[in-house]
Amino acid sequence: MKFFLCVIGMVMIIEGVPYFAFPEKMKAWIYKVLEMPEGTLRKFGFAMMIAGLFLVYFGRS
Q1: What is the total count of domains within the chain?
Q2: 41 near 33, Cβ under 8 Å?
Q3: Nearest-CA neighbor of 52 among 3, 19, 7, 1?
Q4: Is the pTM of this model over 0.85?
Q5: 53 vs 24: CA distance, rounded Å
Q6: How far apart are CA 57 and CA 61, in angstroms?
Q7: What angle do CA 55, 60, 61 make, to 5 degrees?
Q8: What does 8-57 look like in DSSP terms, one character per residue?
Q9: Rounded distance, CA 30 to CA 36, Å?
Q10: Which residue segment(s) compose the domain that 22 sits in?
Q11: pLDDT in tens, the chain (61 residues)
Q12: Cα(25)–Cα(19) distance, rounded to whole angstroms?
């Protein structure tokens, strides 16, 4: 459980850095994401999940 909490904490730190460092650019990026077709977002999300799965697999072996 400690490892899980550390991983979640690191993800939150990494996700928060762009919003802290570049808030105006993040707003513009969010508007661009809102205009993207849902199919594109699904494909991107799926690709990120697969990449994360491979990272976890290779990191644990």
Answers
A1: 1
A2: yes
A3: 7
A4: no
A5: 31
A6: 6
A7: 105
A8: HHHHHHHHHHHHHH-HHHHHHHHHHHHHS-HHHHHHHHHHHHHHHHHHHH
A9: 10
A10: 2-60
A11: 888 899 999 999 999 999 999 999 999 999 999 999 999 999 999 999 999 999 888 888 8
A12: 8
Token pair in block for residue 29: 């990026």
Length of the chain: 61
> Which tokens is 45 given?
């999300």
Residue carrying structure tokens 């799965």: 53
At position 20, the amino acid (one-letter code) is F
**Angle in degrees, CA 15, 10, 53, rounded to 5:** 85
Residue whose structure tokens are 């909490």: 5
Q: In sequence order, what are the residues at sequence separation of 6 or more whose Cβ sits closer than 8 angstroms to the Cβ of residue 26? A: 18, 19
